[in-house]
Amino acid sequence: MGITITPVDQASAGFAAQVAGIDIAAGVSLSQAAVIEEAMDRYGVLIFRDQVIDDQQQFAFSQLFGPMEQATGDIAQSSERRLSMNINDISNLDKSGKVLARDDRKRLFGLGNMLWHSDSSFKSIPAKYSLLSGRVVPERGGNTEFADMRAAWEALDPELQDECRDLVCEHSQLYSRASLGFDNFTDEEVKKWQPVWQQLVRTHPGSGRQSLFLSSHIGGIRGWPVPEARMFLRDLTEHATQPQFVYIHRWRQWDLLMWDNRALMHRARRYDHTVARDLHRTTVSVGEAASG
Ligand code: OGA
Ligand code: MN
Question: How far is the CA of 266 from the centre of ligand 1 (A)?
Answer without folding.
Answer: 7
